[in-house]
Amino acid sequence: MIREVKINLQIQDFEVPDLRESVGWDRRSSDYPALFDRCNFWAGVRSEADGLIAFGYVAGTGLQHGYMEDIIVHPGYHGQGIGKALVSRLLEEAARRGLEIVTVTFAEAHTSFYEKSGFKPCPGGLWRRGSN
Quick check: 62 pLDDT over 80? Predict the structure, then answer.
């Protein structure tokens, strides 16, 4: 069952860190709620029990180009189409806001998922502080 994906869903500060932890990522608790003030928009999905089960956001200048980040679906809800619905809704919102280009960085294991969601893999670069 695909649940409703809501743009700028009301999210409590601990919910995204909890979701990040559920997939084995660092919590990054100090990023929230600052992220909500700094990104262009986000989307979330809640379970029937009202827990946050999916999250992602688009950041950037809000002009032509945006960056899709942190597409997360709780492991207990994998395989239900929630991730694809989340990405699709974020791309719809990007188009509605006039973004012509959306990029996303992902692990190679997720290439098929993003290709099915409309992305085309291409080379890119990564800068990380202290990596010289």
Answer: yes
* CA 85 to chain CA centroid, nearest Å: 11
* Cβ neighbours of residue 107 closer than 8 Å, sequence gap 6 or more: none
Q: Give 2-47 as a 3 state SS string.
A: CCCCEECCCCCCCHHHHHHHHCCCCCCHHHCCHHHHHCCEEEEEEC
Are 5 and 54 within 8 A, CB to CB?
Answer: yes
Work out the end-to-end distance of the chain between its first and last CA atoms, rounded to an integer number of angstroms.
47
- The reported pTM is 0.90
Per residue in 95-131, pLDDT tens? 999 999 999 988 889 989 999 998 888 877 666 676 5
**How many Å apart are CA 61 and CA 63, to the nearest integer?**
5
Using alpha carbons, list the distances in angstroms from residue 5 to 16, 28, 75.
Answer: 15, 23, 17
Judging by beta carbons within 10 Å of its beta carbon (0-12, 13-18, 19+), is residue 59 exposed, middle or buried? middle
Residue 5 one-letter amino acid? V
